[in-house]
């Protein structure tokens, strides 16, 4: 297929860059349209005169606002009338302030909308969105073991936002972080370090290889049935040993005791016991670490 893909292609680690590379790996042609640089006229021309088979869009709110909601909704309608269209995003929408985007943003008007927000199918339906739930996949080329490095070595690691996270979930995230700090002290390390950029690329694989146990979190992990952060699959796929909130969709994809370990979010005693068990049994932990990569 010939696919025109609008999104943020300016960095190698974006969802768009990973999806585009995956599509090309499968033999498709991808014409990248940088959302904050290409006008909607340019995108429509690329689809119309380039004989595109599909228009694909992953939107970054700050970039999309350059063109205005009215223009993007008009463009979405025009593209829907001429070819297959689809939007894909790994974010959660309902339950957060960004729920208003569902009515405002043009990419929700495309023929098919794929997101990881699978716990709100009725809300999408009520909004007139043809929504499909997808698990948040990760880029296959990054799913390889890392090399342990002394600067990353620790018993317990947490990788993710420690401040400035969604206000609706930040108190729960803070409770998890406080537990890890109080229970493990210097034995637990947090990335990114304060004032430092996010750890990416091969360095992230090396981080996961260096930490004995990585503890994960996901927005609304206490009630979610399907939604999960892509961090769980990224951690396991890159070779980390993961202890993660018990979210049904994740448990079904990564079997407990086979690919990862789980705890009910908020059960800090249970989390501590799970971590202690795997810190005390190196062979079992390393077997799960290795086995988890395969399904990802």
Radius of gyration: 20 Å
**Segments where pLDDT lies below 50 for 5+ residues?**
none
Residue-averaged pLDDT, rounded? Answer: 96
What's the end-to-end separation, in Å?
A: 25 Å
Please bin the fraction of helical residues.
25-40%
Provide an overview of this structure:
The chain is an alpha/beta fold. The chain has twelve helices and eleven strands. The strands form two sheets. The chain has a six-stranded parallel β-sheet, with helices on both faces. Helix 2 packs parallel to helix 4. The longest helix is centred in the middle third of the chain and has 15 residues. The radius of gyration is 20 Å and the shape is globular. The chain starts with a strand and ends with a helix.
Annotation keywords:
37% helix, alpha/beta, single chain, five-stranded parallel sheet, 296 residues, 12 helices
Summarize the structure.
It is built from 12 helices and 11 strands.
Topology (SSEs and partners):
Elements: E1 2-7, H1 15-25, E2 29-34, H2 40-49, E3 54-57, H3 61-64, H4 69-80, E4 84-89, H5 101-104, E5 112-115, H6 121-126, E6 131-133, E7 154-159, H7 170-184, E8 188-191, H8 202-210, E9 211-215, H9 231-237, E10 242-245, H10 248-253, E11 261-263, H11 268-280, H12 282-293
């Amino acid at each position: 297929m010939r696919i025109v893909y609008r999104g943020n292609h300016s960095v190698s680690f974006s969802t768009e860059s990973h999806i585009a590379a995956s599509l090309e790996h499968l033999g498709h042609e991808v014409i990248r349209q940088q959302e904050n640089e290409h006008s909607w006229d340019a995108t429509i021309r690329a689809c119309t005169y380039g004989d595109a088979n599909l228009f694909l869009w992953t939107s970054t709110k700050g970039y999309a606002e350059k063109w205005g909601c009215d223009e993007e909704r008009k463009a979405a309608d025009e593209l829907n009338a001429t070819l297959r269209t689809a939007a894909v995003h790994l974010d959660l929408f309902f339950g957060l302030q960004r729920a208003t985007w569902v009515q405002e943003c043009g990419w929700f008007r495309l023929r098919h909308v794929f997101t990881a927000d699978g716990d709100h199918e009725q809300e999408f339906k009520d909004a007139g969105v043809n929504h499909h739930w997808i698990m948040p996949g990760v880029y296959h080329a990054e799913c390889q073991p890392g090399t342990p490095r002394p600067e990353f070595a620790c018993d317990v690691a947490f990788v993710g936002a420690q401040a400035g996270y969604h206000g609706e979930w930040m108190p729960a995230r803070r409770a998890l972080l406080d537990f890890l700090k109080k229970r493990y002290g210097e034995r637990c390390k947090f990335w990114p370090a304060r004032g430092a950029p996010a750890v990416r690329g091969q360095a992230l694989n090396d981080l996961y290889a260096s930490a004995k146990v990585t503890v994960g979190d996901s927005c609304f992990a206490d009630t979610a049935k399907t939604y999960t952060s892509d961090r769980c699959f990224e951690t396991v796929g890159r070779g980390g040993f993961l202890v993660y909130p018990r979210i049904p969709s994740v448990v079904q994809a990564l079997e407990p005791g086979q690919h990862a370990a789980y705890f009910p979010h908020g059960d800090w005693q249970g989390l501590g016991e799970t971590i202690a068990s795997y810190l005390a049994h190196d062979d079992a932990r390393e077997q799960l670490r290795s086995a988890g990569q395969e399904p990802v």
